[in-house]
Specification:
single chain; about 450 residues; alpha+beta; Cytochrome p450; six-stranded mixed β-sheet; two-stranded antiparallel ribbon; globular; disordered N terminus; Cyt_P450_E_grp-I; heme
Length: about 450
């Protein structure tokens, strides 16, 4: 098998190691599949939508294992559905079913998001157009959507504990996307013995697990078997039902770590996309104005946007697609692992081989996107101005490990973007030429630059 060493510093601010452009150059040299060695660890890398689909869809079971992430092993300790162990499929399947029961893919979740969007409008109105860092407010609205499903409640934006947890989420995602964490994942056996940011991640994770445990205890005290209120209630009922079953996967530790996965992922991914998206709209005000024109034509000003409006708003939908493509939230996805010895496109992969699915290579593939490194909503519009599907658009990945909250995230992005732009015009703290849309950092995740904007009532 061809091997490539992919250390490279990027002129756009990305770090060496896991991320582009080094691995993009490997693809140019070696093709859609190759091996990289990061420190002492070997990874098989798959690029390009055709190869990704062949692995994750056509060979879904073989590539369904969760690859090795040292920090996740330390946090989850083989519990919950995030990592690979005997019970992850059961927990993932039940999580998806329960999320559906409490709104995912149903009108009830749309109503919850619409209600949260109106709370957001009221909060932004209080700013009276003053320049603010939108990080916390975007985290608040996305967190409250998942909290309503998981905990059965939403939190005030002024709630001290809520604010503390959201600030911790930001800190964790920043650490996970840092150069330090890339080094840590390459030499975990050594670095985990030394002081470093990984211990801060573990401390924060424990704090949030304690918070989740307290919520579970409250649910246990008030649980009505005939009327489950949320995800926690449903899981507790399964625990009770299988309490006599040997090796049941339904126990409190799995509940805590499953909720941790849902809470963090359901908050951080969509909120970061919103934050990057509004930075792009500040940089390209003509795009924001065109979205507002479409909102005024289809929705007007007298009612809130609804998900059914999306079919009549191809430009807005294309802009949201392009924000997801350009922001490239998880450039490498989350590592996979092959669950058995297998051959793939002429190469032999022993059982247990770690696999990186280079999502960024699809989202920035010049064969599918005319200007892959330029923000341009026309990437998703045909000659008639209708929304154009693109098989290289896979920000949620695909297959058995695809993002289980994709439906919620898509609904959130449409309703939050349209509700904000229906009610506000955007004001930048800097001249357009000084707005930097390059990533602040790009490792496991991609984070936008810190910026401020004002929301002026329209």
């Amino acid at each position: 098998m061809v091997s490539g060493s992919c250390w490279s510093n990027s002129a756009t601010g990305t770090s060496p190691g896991w991320t582009l452009p080094g691995w993009s150059e490997c693809r140019d040299k070696y093709g859609d599949v190759f091996t990289v060695y990061l420190g002492t660890r070997r990874y098989f890398v798959i690029c390009g939508p055709e190869s990704v689909k062949k692995a994750l869809v056509d060979n879904a079971e073989v590539f369904s294992g969760r690859g090795t992430l040292a920090i996740s092993e330390m946090v989850f300790q083989r519990y919950g559905f995030f990592v690979t162990y005997d019970g992850w499929k059961t927990l993932r399947r039940v999580s998806i079913a329960t999320l559906r029961d409490f709104g995912m893919g149903k009108r009830s979740i749309e109503e919850q998001i619409k209600a949260e969007a109106q709370c957001l409008v009221e909060e932004l109105q209080k700013s009276q157009g003053a320049l603010i860092d939108p990080t916390f407010i975007f985290h608040s609205v996305t967190a409250n959507v998942i909290c309503s499903i998981v905990f059965g409640e939403r939190f005030s934006y002024q709630d001290t504990q809520f604010r503390e947890i959201l600030n911790m989420f930001v800190e964790v995602f920043t650490i996970l996307s840092s150069l330090w964490m890339q080094f840590f994942e390459q030499f975990p056996s050594v670095l985990k013995l030394l002081p470093g940011p990984h211990y801060r991640v573990l401390k924060i994770a424990q704090h949030i697990k304690d918070f989740i445990s307290s919520k579970i205890e409250q649910h246990q005290e008030s649980l009505d078997p005939n009327s489950p209120r949320d995800f926690i209630d449903s899981f507790l009922l399964r625990i009770e039902k299988e309490k006599e079953t040997p090796d049941s996967k339904y126990h409190v530790k799995n509940l805590v770590l499953t909720v941790l996965s849902l809470f963090f992922a359901g908050t951080e991914t969509t909120s970061t996309t919103l934050r990057y998206g509004f930075l792009l709209l500040l940089k390209y005000p003509q795009v924001a104005e065109k979205v507002q024109e479409e909102i005024d034509q289809v929705v007007g000003r007298d009612r809130a946007p609804e998900i059914k409006d999306r079919a009549k708003m191809p430009y807005t939908d294309a802009v949201i697609h392009e924000i997801q493509r350009f922001s490239d939230l998880l450039p490498m996805g989350i590592p996979h692992m092959v669950t058995e010895d297998t051959s793939f496109q002429g190469y032999f992969l022993p059982k247990g081989t770690d696999v990186f699915i280079l999502l960024s290579a699809s989202l920035k593939d010049p064969c599918y996107f005319e200007k892959p490194h330029i923000f341009d909503p026309n990437h998703f519009l045909d000659a008639q101005g209708a929304l154009k599907k693109n098989e290289a658009f896979i920000p949620f990945s695909m297959g058995k490990r695809a993002c289980l909250g994709e439906g919620i995230a898509r609904t959130e992005l449409f309703l939050f973007f349209t509700t904000i732009l229906q009610n506000f015009s955007l004001v930048s703290s800097k001249p357009l030429e000084d707005l930097d849309i390059r990533p602040q950092c790009s490792g496991l995740g991609t984070l936008p630059q810190i910026y401020k904007l004002g929301f002026l009532p329209r």
